[in-house]
Recover the amino acids of this structure.
């Protein structure tokens, strides 16, 4: 791969991300109204079975959901609501 | 422009959108700041997984492979996070211990987390998201996604990354970009032209740049499609191969469907990897030079069905799985291989992360006798 091509590829990728983010980086009303329980059910089943709230305590859930936020690129709002739900329900 | 400059420009560009959005969303970040002040205590979790089993391939059979991978998680503050995984394995009669990953992450804002260390490479989904034994639906990894069959793409990388996810109306987008030591080109003997992805020290000054962009088009997050790429010079610095570059691409798909009519969850996963190394001359054992089009590809498509909503306590834990996978390495190379594999299996889930898998694999290797395999694996995430 020539450096020229490399620049093009990276540039396109970053511009794409830039445009998408600046234009409309906000959830719809439907999405932002979702409760933590629903976000947990929808997101935590995508790679493995959904972990039940009872398996960890509050602090452990905090660590796990940060781990998963990074692993799965879950949005901050989703991660915050999911932790709150798991901590309420364990 | 030097690679280093490109990288700094890119990382710079990555920050702009997050800053721009940060302003528009003051209340959200103020809320986060308030939350931050209340915490600061370290949150620790020791998790990980173990697996063991039995396999019969052709006329050989053995207990194993056996693995134990403890994972250590420390959340120091709401912004600072550390994760590490050790990996101990007995495979093919050998014991191996390794550092699978160890990374520090810092959350700069809601849309950008930066990290450095050794990490599971966000190239496609198998390495980063599906490989742990309790997550992988099959006892074996797909062709081209394990060191036994030869990797067509990276598994882990040593470097730095920037990643995040953001909502876009009813959809979501996420990105992971990284810079890493990158693979090294093997140039001797019967592995000439192959890439060594365990390049923990860098063999040249050039760094690999790569990343993945994922898109979730539905508001219930059931579908994610991803595209990945990685580019690097792979030849040793002091060698005639120093200018040789490698480009690799991957496409991936992940879909979860709650099929209400059959009270089941259907899970579809797939990934296609393509790897190109620039053409060059190698010399064989007699000293004659030869070359070949150095392109490899590997893919898998996997489907599983679990009747989670039936009344029977036994049946709801049963999962039927099927996977097709294919590997092709360059014709003309000493390591040329064309291989297909169809695996069928039944899993029984003992808890959300503990499973017993029974698999039968039908293998077709061009130019040699096919070896069908039978596997039992017990995997437990903790």
């Amino acid at each position: 791969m020539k450096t020229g091509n490399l620049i093009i590829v990276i540039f396109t990728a970053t511009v794409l991300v830039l445009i998408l983010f600046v234009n409309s980086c906000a959830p719809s009303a439907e999405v932002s109204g979702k409760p933590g329980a629903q976000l947990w059910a929808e997101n935590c089943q995508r790679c493995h079975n959904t972990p039940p709230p009872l398996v960890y305590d509050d602090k452990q859930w905090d660590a796990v959901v940060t781990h998963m936020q990074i692993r799965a690129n879950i949005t901050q709002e989703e991660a915050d609501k999911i932790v709150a739900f798991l901590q309420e329900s364990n | 422009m030097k690679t280093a400059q490109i990288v700094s420009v890119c990382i710079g560009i990555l920050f702009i959108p997050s800053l721009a959005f940060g302003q528009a969303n003051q209340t959200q970040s103020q809320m986060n700041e308030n939350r931050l002040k209340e915490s600061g205590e370290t949150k620790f979790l020791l998790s990980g997984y173990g697996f063991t089993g039995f396999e019969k391939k052709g006329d050989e059979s053995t207990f194993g492979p056996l693995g134990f991978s403890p994972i250590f998680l420390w959340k120091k503050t709401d912004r600072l996070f550390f994760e590490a995984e050790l990996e101990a394995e007995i495979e093919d009669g050998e014991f191996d211990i390794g550092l699978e990953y160890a990374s520090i992450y810092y959350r700069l804002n809601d849309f950008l987390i930066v990290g450095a260390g050794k990490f599971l490479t966000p190239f496609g989904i198998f390495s980063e998201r599906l490989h742990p034994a309790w997550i992988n639906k099959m006892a074996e990894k797909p062709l081209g996604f394990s060191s036994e069959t030869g990797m067509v793409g990276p598994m882990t990388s040593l470097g730095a990354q920037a990643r995040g996810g953001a909502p876009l109306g009813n959809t979501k987008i996420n990105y992971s970009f990284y810079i890493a030591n990158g693979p090294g080109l093997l140039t001797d003997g019967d592995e000439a032209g192959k890439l060594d992805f365990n390049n923990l020290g860098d063999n040249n000054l050039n760094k690999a740049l790569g990343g993945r962009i994922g898109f979730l088009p539905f508001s219930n997050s059931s579908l994610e499609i991803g595209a990945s790429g990685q580019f690097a010079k792979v030849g040793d610095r002091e060698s005639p191969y120093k200018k040789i570059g490698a480009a690799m691409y991957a496409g991936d798909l992940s879909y979860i469907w709650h099929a209400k009519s059959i009270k089941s969850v259907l899970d579809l996963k797939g990934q296609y990897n393509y790897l190109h190394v620039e053409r060059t001359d190698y010399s064989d054992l007699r000293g004659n030079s030869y070359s070949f089009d150095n392109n490899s590809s590997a893919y898998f498509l996997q489907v599983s069905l679990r009747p989670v909503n039936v009344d029977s306590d036994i049946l709801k834990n049963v999962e039927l799985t099927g996977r097709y996978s294919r590997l092709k390495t360059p014709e003309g190379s000493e390591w040329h291989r064309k291989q297909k594999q169809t695996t069928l299996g039944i899993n029984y889930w003992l808890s959300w992360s503990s499973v017993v898998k029974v698999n039968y694999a039908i293998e077709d290797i061009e130019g040699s006798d096919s070896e069908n395999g039978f596997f039992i694996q017990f995997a437990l995430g903790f």
Remarks:
- DSSP finds five helices and no strands in chain A.
- The two ends of chain A are 52 Å apart (CA to CA).
